[in-house]
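hey team, just a heads up i'm posting the complex here instead of the shared drive bc the drive is being weird again. everything in one block, sequence lines first with there labels, then the predicted structure for the whole assembly after. its two chains so it's a bit long, scroll down
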Amino acid sequence: MSSRRSRSRQSGSSRITEEQISDLVSKLQDLLPEARLQSNARVPSARVLQETCNYIRSLHREVDDLSERLSELLATSDMSSAQEAIIRSLLM
Amino acid sequence: MASSSPTGKRKREEEEEEQSPSSSKWRARRTEETYSSKLIQALRLVRAAAAAGTTTTTSSSTRSRDVRDAADRALAAAARGRSRWSRAILARRRTTLLRARLHHPVPIPMAGSSSSNQRHQQNHEEVEKAKVLGRLVPGCRKLPFPALLAEVSDYIAALEMQVRAMTALAQALSTASSSPS
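-- predicted structure starts here --
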């Protein structure tokens, strides 16, 4: 076990380096909404991962709410005027 | 190299898209328009299916789940097969549950610190959180850490676009229904 770890410190041929990991984590941090994490501060990667999970979950919830809203609107809306509004919103 | 003609610019944009699944494409207006069109087509089908069946027995939760599925499928289609999560969504939806179980890939123990190929030092907490993340993104349970993070960035950008497009659509529909001209 220890020999494997010492090899990883020396080897340049390992595909996944710690630098790559922290680089990816910082990119992930940039994706998160800025209100939650200061983008300049160095945040521990576990925290970034947690915030990412929370963010994805909240996005899923938003999509679910929107799906519910859309399904209600679909049932009640008049299709022709809806189509006009849709085309108009796409052209904007 | 810089072409002022519209076809030249479009070609360059397409070439850029071909190179890598850059998450900035999810912020492009053209992507959102494409997605909105796909979504509308899918929603028309959902609406037609609901109308064809007995509307009294279709619960609102089933309808909203159909809408959610249509929205996810359209999102995965908009990704043009360049990300694992999008391929997972399309594969999941098309097959029945039984076939999905048969085609379930044999778990390859690559993720986590137990693998001998992982050279980086990950503490236990990070590994656990990465696992949770892998479960949240479709088709990414067994991915090694770097690939997982790449998928996550693309997935988040796509989800944000999905929210924007669906919000705009909901607003357009609610304006249309509230003010019939």
